[in-house]
UniProtKB/TrEMBL annotation:
One Pfam family, short name: PH_20
Keywords linked to the UniProt accession: Phosphoprotein
CDD domains: PH_Slm1
Stretches for region Disordered: 1-25, 413-495
Name of this chain's protein: PH domain-containing protein
Species assigned in the record: Periconia digitata
Length: 495
């Protein structure tokens, strides 16, 4: 038997394949990591601009000091200044103009540095903070959801491996195992956890689609903020000189030409194999295969709804019952695998049970509830369970399926099914068997048979379907006729 292996599947299977693995091999946090890395790239890009503005501000502040040094070269008064006319328009006035303009240039550099630090730099600083907050939001939102997906996948894989272990030992042990290790029960447990995993995956998928859509708007905001900050920067440095204005104008002009969606479209084209396709259908349990899903031990011999008589109210309750290849009769509330964990309400190991005859729609099974495992089985008591099918044919099918796996058979009829008077044109259970085994016509073997009564003693039980119960039918005809060698399934009192 093939052991379960870790599934490996590409993203293409998630988007278009009908047959999918239960636990995909891709990293659920791959998209989150990609977005985190992209935010890191934007943060570094904004940091570059911050560093650029800061360096320009420090340079202007340093230029202010340097122009103060330049101013000292034309300090007042001029040496031998008395040789020059001190009125305006002369040499002295020229130097006075030089000094005032040089002082103005120095002050202008100080003012430029002040404006860069107080007006332009905060714009990029706030943008940097927004990107950091976006990274935290991504880590706490989609990143946390990705961890929940990984946890759910690990739990599903664990139960799939558990199912593989017990399906592998099914043949080697002859199908004998505890109720909790029944591959049918384990398979339903896998489906329950697989459904929980898919819910986590689909929730994470929706979160990532929302993040993916919000990133386009966020990047447009980032580019708009960069454009606005650089425009402020241009206004500040534009007063320095025409040449500086032309150089910085060219730099800002290049930034103004960037379309708002240019970077985003390029990002999507480069990472189309990683990003989620919003048009792809969500995952469904019906499209998923997992190891040992179709193993013969997971397929019920018979399954459907039966009515069982209650112990106190004596009324009939309808439940969902299954006879599995492991020879268990499991009782469930419903056949729904997804509403809650499908753990059997009751489990009977049929080789340890005693099965009565079928009468119309009714039949009885006596045995222990082993759904609680070995410990519960040690303290549980035998219970006689009265079942009622929807139709007589359905009761016969259930009785035959149970009879094939049971340990003991009895001729007991269900309560309320015992005949009250003999019928002349019908044979007794024993004479009917005699007529089938010896070839004697029923009319010739007709003897006054003992009536089948309710509550036969346990000594009447027969250990195999091939031995007839003759203790309750001690008539002359039955005493001289050999016991039947085989039973007729589905007829009261004939085994």
């Amino acid at each position: 038997m093939a052991s379960p292996t870790s599934p490996t599947v590409g993203r293409a299977a998630t988007n278009g394949s009908v047959d999918e693995d239960a636990v995909p091999g891709e990293d659920s946090s791959e998209v989150t990591k990609l977005f985190a890395e992209r935010l890191q790239a934007w943060k570094h890009a904004v940091a570059y601009l911050e560093d650029y503005i800061t360096a320009t501000e420090k340079t202007n502040h340093a230029h202010g000091k340097e122009y103060e040094r330049v101013l000292k070269t034309v300090k007042d008064p001029l040496k031998e200044g008395h040789h020059f006319d001190q009125s305006l328009g002369g040499i002295a006035g020229m130097f006075e103009n030089i000094r005032s303009n040089t002082q103005g240039i120095s002050n202008q550099h100080y003012e430029t540095a002040k404006q860069l630090k107080g007006q332009v730099l905060p714009t990029f600083d706030r943008l940097h903070t927004e990107i950091k907050n976006k990274s935290k939001e991504l880590a706490k939102g989609a990143g946390k959801q990705s961890k929940a997906v990984d946890k759910a996948r690990a739990l599903t894989q664990k139960h799939i491996e558990h199912l593989g272990t017990h399906t592998a030992t099914f043949d080697s042990t002859g199908g004998r195992m505890t109720a909790t290790d029944d591959p049918y029960v384990l398979q339903r447990g896998v489906l329950f956890r697989l459904n929980r995993q898919i819910q986590e995956e689909n929730n994470n998928r929706q979160d990532l689609i929302s993040v993916q859509n919000s990133f386009a708007q966020f990047e447009a905001h980032v580019i708009q903020t960069i454009q606005h900050g650089l425009a402020q920067f241009m206004q500040v440095v534009n007063t320095q000189c025409d040449q500086t204005k032309a150089m910085y104008g060219d730099m800002v002009g290049a930034s103004q030409k960037i379309p708002l969606d240019f970077e985003w479209n390029g990002f999507v084209d480069r990472n189309n194999t990683i990003l989620i396709d919003p048009n792809a259908p969500p995952r469904s349990v019906s499209n998923i295969n997992f190891p040992n899903q179709d193993h013969r031990s997971t397929k019920p011999i018979i399954a459907g709804s039966l009515e069982r008589k209650g112990k106190i109210m004596r009324g009939y309750d309808t439940n969902y019952y299954v006879v599995t290849p492991s020879k268990f009769l499991h009782e469930y509330k419903t056949d729904d695998n997804f509403a809650k964990d499908p753990v059997p309400e009751m489990s009977l190991y049929l080789p340890d049970c005693v099965v009565g005859a079928v009468s119309g729609q009714k039949f009885n099974v006596k045995g222990k509830d082993v759904s609680k495992g070995k410990l519960g089985n040690s303290f549980s008591m035998n219970h006689e369970l009265a079942f009622k099918a929807h139709t007589a044919d359905s009761a016969t099918q259930w009785h035959q399926a149970i009879m094939q796996a049971c340990g003991k058979l009895t001729g007991e009829l269900p309560a309320g099914s015992t005949p009250t008077s003999p019928v002349a044109d019908k044979m007794s259970p024993v004479s009917s068997i005699n007529s089938r085994t010896t070839g004697t016509p029923a009319a010739d073997a007709r003897q006054p048979a003992a009536l089948q009564t309710e509550g036969l003693s346990k000594t009447n039980s027969v250990t195999s379907p091939g031995t007839a119960n003759t203790a309750s039918a001690a008539t002359p005809a039955s005493a001289t006729t050999p016991a039947p060698t085989s039973g007729v399934a589905g007829e009261p009192g004939k085994y």
